[in-house]
């Protein structure tokens, strides 16, 4: 069984947008009340009723609450039940060590609500637009950029910096099977985000550079605005919209890239990189200030712009198998003879081995080394030259 998500931009009118905000607010209230009940009052509840606090017991109390409060009853009950299910799942993940402790939701940050697939209807109006019927809200237009495939299971409406959007979850989709055989080494970089061991290079869309320049200008405008003014609010929304657009383009590129890789190669071999540690600030403290802070800040921004961790996450659920290898000296090791020498890396793009004379693109050479380490993880490369002193300090 295959699952797939489809996300579209909604075009609500003023009354529908007000209904969206009301639904998101009530679902957020239900989450926060249920979280407080589980966190503060579970002992009293257990002593009073003899039951444990879980989704079933809280859903029963939600039904009683809807009979007493009008504005909660005005919102679809399914959305509120999905909020309770999400909280119950968050607690399960926390107790299994898969996530942090559930936190309260905030207005403007967690404006989202979910419907069951059997409650909604989707229709195409023309080549560009479609509409969806949501319970207690009605028909809402959305930009239908592609057709839905499979059986509709749920629909989630959420507010982003670019406006309202709806995501449909479908199962039994007609998806081309990913490969199960063949291995490829993947080198993640900054100038070349992804280089494969077969010589294929993937670069970010040029549109991201344009948006980055626009975002920098918008941030300078925001810095000159007075906090609390209408002009400051407008400038802040402008910056948030540009950042959200860049994130959307980057995520779309990551999905397309990882899908192409996994359709051609069953095993993806990557370096074991700690992105959070690599992008830590170098500013230091007042007592021990850091050095080369501006250069490190630029490197951190470049690494985060590529989205190394996001690519790794997508590979883990798309690829048939993912192997992580030791990243040390992959850029200084010759993929032909195995010699390690920092002088072989002439510059960012060129690699010329000082031992055997092998020359290749530096990123391609690193991808070949990653592939070799994934296939033969017990073989250690021979260390020569200046790199030997780094491995065996005196």
Automatic annotation (TrEMBL):
Keyword annotations: DNA recombination, DNA-binding, Metal-binding, Transposition, Zinc
Transposase putative helix-turn-helix domain location: 4-44
Cas12f1-like TNB domain location: 308-370
Pfam families per UniProt: Cas12f1-like_TNB, HTH_OrfB_IS605, OrfB_IS605
InterPro entries: Cas12f1-like_TNB, Transposase, Transposase_put_HTH
Probable transposase IS891/IS1136/IS1341 domain mapped to chain residues: 180-280
Source superkingdom: Bacteria
Family: In the C-terminal section; belongs to the transposase 35 family.
Name assigned to this protein: Transposase
